[in-house]
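Q: Structure tokens for this one, please.
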Amino acid sequence: SADMAHGVHPNFMDKHEEHHRPELHKGLVIKHNANQRYATSGTTAFLFKEVGKIHSLPTQDFVVRNDMGCGSTIGPILASGIGIRTVDCGIPQLSMHSVREICGKEDIDIAYNHFKAFYQTFSSVDRKLNVD
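A: Here is the predicted structure, written as tokens:
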């Protein structure tokens, strides 16, 4: 499920968990939420990161602070309705839902290359994975 992700704003760094502050130009963000607002699981995050590692593409993780609200994506709905493993990811951006949303131009290339690599490499990575 590809969407956008909340990048850390320098004026509001305290709105993010200390070790989960997605930065522009640092790669695709894998979004996690314990309340299933995102569809990412441990297995799907691993698969997505592994594809990135094989192709030298950076990834970042985003976990919403426990005391902050969280939006959602269509990922959980699609995953439950279709029954396929799903990862929620996106390009980090500033000012989501504002008149002027901002993202890093390098992140667009990273996203394109990561999605292309995913379709080329997923099957071979998935065959090696054993999930109990």
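A few notes: Residues 105-128 form the longest helix (24 residues). The chain has a mean pLDDT of 85.
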